[in-house]
């Protein structure tokens, strides 16, 4: 009987590779100095030396509540505007902005659905979404950053990443 190689050994390396690519992307969009400043402010030693708490995404987000509904028209903010809302891990209130979503920046979409709950495929757990999150018509993942995955999953959008359009385009 032969055993197949254990692919789990490569998982930490893939994680490091993904983080490196993500940080290069952030530095390219934000500029080197803003990227370094954001990363330094999130380190434990900086927080300890300055007596400050972790710079959370809540500190950077504009307080506008769009209260989007189905069929509302929105425009996705620019990458820079979205990156200003992200914490050092690239998340806003736990939701990551992915490279596949960047191609939709500056484009207009209709809100397909407002999310209240999602089902996690890995565990089967049903989770409530407490912060305003929507799905946009036609804004689906093309899988380019996930090894060519062809599932066409919906991208989840925080309302802070969107601007309401008053008139349909």
Please give the count of helices.
6
The order of strands across the largest sheet is: 6-5-4-1-7
* Number of strand segments: 7
CATH architecture identity of the largest domain: Roll
User: What Rg do the Cα atoms give?
Assistant: 18 Å
CATH class of the largest domain: Mainly Beta
Cα end-to-end separation: 63 Å
For the largest beta-sheet, the strand count, sense and barrel status come to:
5 strands, antiparallel
Q: Level of helix content?
A: 25-40%
CATH topology of the largest domain: SH3 type barrels
What fraction of the residues are assigned to beta strands by DSSP?
25-35%
Mean pLDDT, all residues: 82
Order of helices and strands: HHHHEHEEHEEEE
Number of domains: 2
Low-confidence stretches: none
Would you write up a description of this structure?
The chain is of the alpha+beta class and 169 residues long. The protein folds into 2 domains: 7-55, no CATH class; 59-169, SH3 type barrels. Helix content is 30%, strand content 25%. It is built from 6 helices and 7 strands; from the N terminus they run H-H-H-H-E-H-E-E-H-E-E-E-E. The chain has helices at residues 11-30, 32-41, 44-50, 57-60, 79-83, 99-102; strands at residues 73-76, 91-92, 95-96, 108-119, 126-140, 154-158, 162-164. The strands form 2 sheets. Strands 6-5-4-1-7 form a 5-stranded antiparallel beta sheet, with no helix packed on it. Strands 2-3 form a two-stranded antiparallel sheet. The chain starts with 10 loop residues before the first helix and ends in a 5-residue tail after the last strand.
């Amino acid at each position: 009987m032969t055993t197949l190689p254990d692919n789990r050994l490569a998982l930490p390396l893939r994680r490091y590779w993904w983080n490196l690519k993500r940080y290069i992307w952030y530095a390219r969009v934000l500029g080197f100095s803003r990227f370094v400043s954001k990363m330094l402010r999130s380190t434990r030693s900086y927080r300890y030396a300055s007596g400050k708490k972790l710079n959370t995404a809540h500190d950077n987000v504009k307080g506008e509540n769009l209260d989007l509904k189905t069929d509302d028209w929105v425009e996705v903010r620019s990458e820079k505007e979205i990156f200003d809302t992200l914490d050092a891990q690239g998340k806003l209130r736990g939701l990551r902005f992915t490279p596949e979503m960047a191609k939709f920046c500056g484009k207009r979409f209709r809100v397909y659905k407002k999310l209240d709950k999602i089902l996690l495929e890995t565990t089967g757990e049903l989770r409530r979404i407490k912060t305003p999150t929507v799905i946009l018509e036609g804004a689906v993942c093309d899988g380019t950053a996930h090894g060519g995955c062809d599932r066409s999953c919906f991208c989840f959008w925080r309302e802070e990443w969107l601007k309401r359009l008053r008139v349909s385009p």
